[in-house]
Amino acid sequence: MRLKYQNPQDTQYGIAKYNGSISEIDWKTVSDKIHRRYAYSYDNLSRLTKGTYLTPYLASNAQNHFYDEEVSYDLNGNIKTLNRFQSPPPGSSTAMHIDELVYDYEIPNMSNKLTKITDNRNNPSGYPIGSNTIDYDLNGNMTSQKDKGISSITYNYLNLPKQILAAQGNTSYLYRADGTKLKKTFGNKTTEYLDGFQYENGVLKLIPTTEGTYDLQQTQYIYDHKDHLGNIRFSYGVADGGGWFYLKENNYYPFGLAHQGYNDYNNLKEFNIPYNDKYNGKELEEETGMYDYGARFYMPDVGRWGTIDPLSELQFAYNPYSYVYGNPINFNDPTGMIGEDPPTRGLSPLNPIEIDNIVLTGTRGNPTLSYMGIQNLYAYHASQDRLAAAIRGSKAALATEKFERNLAFAMGTFGTGGSNLLASAGWVTLDTWLSYQDEDTQETVEVVQLAAIALQLKKGNISAVNKLKKVGDDIIDYHMARKEAFQWLENRGFKAEKVVLGKFGTSKGKPVGMSTADGKTGFRVEIDDRHGAHINVWFGKEKGPHFTFDATEKTINNIIKRFSR
Question: Closest Cα to residue 387, out of 330, 329, 347, 430?
Fold first, then answer.
C-alpha cells in the first residue's frame, strides 16, 4: 500500500495536497493481484467530496469508477447527498450506480437531526430502499431506522444501545458501569467479551496475543494486515508445511462501507474468523450494519453516527453527528468521542508517542509475551488515546465559559473502557510540553495533571495519589513562582525572543530559560544547594530576586524541556 500527498499520479482525479491530506492511495488485492487506486478530492474545509476508484494498470482502465463515492455537505457540515457505485452485473462493463441518497434534516441548514434518507436509485445494494422517518429520543439518540428494519433502539444511562428490535431478530447488550461492553445476545447466540478474550455461548473462542489472535476452535493463529487508519485489509495464517493462507479480504469505500464483488476470498482454509473487526479495526455488528467504537455506533452506509458526540461540548465548532469532520481518509476515531490523525503507537511506555505536541510517557515497565503483559500494553494504548483526548478537550474548553465542568467531563473520558490511567498502565507522571510559549495552554495541560490527582482521590486510589502528590505540589509551587517572576519581567518590558543556556551543573549548555534578543533581560529556571529550585531574573545590570519554589531536580528537568522546543 502506498499513500501519496503532493505527488498523485492521476491528477485528473487526485489533486496534489500540501496540507497533509492524502491525495491518492494505491494497493494491490491479495485475491487477484490487481493494482487498485483511490484518488481523493476535498473542499476548502478539507472535507472529502469524492473518492474516485481506478485500476491504472488494467488494459483500458477496465474497472475505473467501479467503487466511486461522492458526497456534498450542508452549511452545518452534515452530509446532504451521497452517490455510490459498485461493480457491474455480468454482461456489463459500466459501473452500477447503487446509491443516490438525499438526506433530509429537521430544519435544513440549521438542525443536525437526520429525519429521512431517500434513495433515488431504488437499488437494494448499498443503503436499503425505504425513505422512512428516523426517530430520536430526548438525548438526540436515534431510536429507529426502519429503512434497515430496525423498529426500536433503547439506550442506557451512557447513551449506549441496550436493546435493538429489528425484523431479522432482536439484539441486547450488557455493559459494565463504565461503558465497557460485556455481552451481546442475538437470537440463540451469546457473545461475551472479557479483556480481549471472546466467548460464544460460554465457550472460549479466541485469545489475543502479541503475535496475533489465537482461534481455539481451529487451533490456529490469525494475523490481520491493517492500513494507516487501522482498517483490517486482509486476514491470514500460516499454512501446514509452511507458507501463508488467506482467510478474508476487506476493502472499503471512503466512509467505510465494504466493497462487494471481490472481497470474499478463501484459498486453503474453510473456516469462519471468530471475530468481526473490520473498518478502523472496530467490530461490525452484522445484525444492524453498524460499527461499535466504544462510546458510539457508526453507520458506514450513511457516513455518520446515530448518537451525539459525548465530547460535543468540547468540540463546539464541529457537528456532533459528523464522522471525523468529514475527512475519513486522514482521520479515524479510536473511541467514538474525538476524531484524530492516527498516530504511530509506541510499543511500550518506554517508547512514547507524540500527539498534537502532547508527549505521553510512563514509568519503566517490562511488558512480556504473557497475557498480562499484553493487557497492560492494551491499557497503555487506551490510556494514551483517552488522556490525549482529555487534554485536547480541556484546551478547547478554555474558549467557553464552562471550563471547570468541561474539564471534569474531559478528565472522566480516560477512565472509561476499564482503563484506569494510573493503576492499569502503571503511570506515575504525565510529562507534557508545547512547541511554543503559550502560558494559558501550558497551564491548562498542567491543570489536567492536578485533575488526575483529584480523580484518583475520588476513586480511592491512594497509592496513585501518593505517587502523584509530589508532582502536583511541584506544579502549584512552580506556577506561583513563575507568575511572580513574569510580573517582575513584564514591568520591565520583557519579551521572550531567544533561548538562554545553563552555565553550571547538569544543566550546563542546556536551554534553561528565555531572554530578549540582546540578552539584557531574561530568566533562568535553576536548582542549586544554596537557593533550591528557583527562577533567576535580570534586567540589564539589575539582578532581581530569586523566585523560589519546591521541586525536585527531575521536575526542573521536565520544566526546562519546554525551552528546547
Answer: 430
- pLDDT tens digits, residue range 246-266? 888 899 999 999 998 887 655
Within a 13 Å sphere around the CA of 424, how many CA atoms are in the beta-carbon half?
20
d(CA 70, CA 409): 36
Bridge partners, residue 284, by sequence: 291
Cell reading at 146? 426502519
Q: Give the model confidence (pLDDT) of 315-368 as tens digits.
A: 777 899 999 999 999 999 988 888 877 754 433 344 443 333 333 333 333 333
Dist. CA 349–CA 61, nearest whole Å: 47
Handedness of CA 452, 456, 462, 464 (dihedral sign): negative
For residues 282 and 475, give the distance between their C-alpha atoms in angstroms, rounded to a whole number: 39
Determine the length of the chain: 565
Q: What is the pTM of this model?
A: 0.65
CB-neighbour burial class of residue 397 (10 A; exposed 0-12, middle 13-18, buried 19+): buried
Q: How far apart are CA 506 and CA 137, in angstroms?
A: 61
Q: What's the maximum distance between 2 C-alpha atoms anywhere in the chain?
A: 89
CA gap 322, 42 in Å, rounded: 16
Nearest to 281 by CA among 345, 233, 230: 230
E strands within 318-442?
Answer: 354-355, 358-359
Euclidean distance between the first and final Cα of the chain, in Å? 34
Q: Which residues contact 404 (CB under 8 A, 6 or more apart)?
A: none
CB of 164 within 8 A of CB of 171?
A: yes
Mean pLDDT check: name the lowest of 4-8, 20-24, 261-265, 419-423: 419-423
What 8-state DSSP symbol labels residue 282? P
Q: Where are the domains of the chain?
A: 2-326
* CA atoms within 13 Å, Cβ hemisphere of 498: 8
Q: In which residue are the cell numbers 468540547 written?
A: 314
